[in-house]
Every structure is written in structure tokens, then in C-alpha cells.
Amino acid sequence: MAEIIVYSTAYCPYCNMAKKLLEGKGLAYQEINVDDKALWQDMEAKSGRNTVPQIFIGNTHIGGFDDLSAADKSDKLDQIIASES
């Protein structure tokens, strides 16, 4: 299975919703807490965005929670997971 990485902060409601969506699909993920400024800068460099969450499945940047939710509703998420596995 493709590695799933969720960049998040401690008190972000969208981060929590993204993690719940992944957990509801039975998907394991690695969470990287970017409360540390250096980790935040790494996330920005990798994603090109400055908001959390930022979600990656394998080499594919999904985006934030809204992007993850839209991909799930359109079945694109399952396609990405299958193609990255």
C-alpha cells in the first residue's frame, strides 16, 4: 500500500476531519505535526501551500481536507491509492 502522509497541527479541525476520513476508509497514515517552524517550512516546500492539512499519497499531493473529501466522493481517492500501491 502507498504511504500516506498527513501534515497537521495539534488544534486544526480540518486535520482531524482528514484523519477521520482516512481512518473511516481503513487507511493507515503517518502524521507529521508541523507546529515546529522547520517542519512547517518543509511542508510548504513540498506542497507549495501554507495551510494544513496537506496530504500526500505516495508521490501524489492530494491537497487539504476539501481536496481529500472531493477525491473521496468522486472515487478518485480509491484510484490514487490503487495507482500508488
Would you write up a description of this structure?
The chain has 85 residues and is α+β, with helices and mostly antiparallel strands. The protein has one domain (4-84): Glutaredoxin, CATH 3.40.30. Helix content is 48%, strand content 20%. It has four helices and four strands, in the order βαβαββαα. The chain has a four-stranded mixed beta sheet with strand order 2-1-3-4, sandwiched between helices. Strand 1, helix 1 and strand 2 form a beta-alpha-beta unit. The model has no long low-confidence stretch (mean pLDDT 96).
Q: Give the CATH topology.
A: Glutaredoxin
Q: Which strand order does the major sheet show?
A: 2-1-3-4
Overall number of strands: 4
Overall pLDDT level: 96
So what's the CATH class?
Alpha Beta
What's the number of structural domains?
Answer: 1
- Estimate what percentage of residues fall within beta strands: 15-25%
User: What is the CATH H-level superfamily?
Assistant: Glutaredoxin
Give helix % range: 40-55%
Shape: globular
The largest β sheet comes out as: 4 strands, mixed
Structural class: alpha+beta
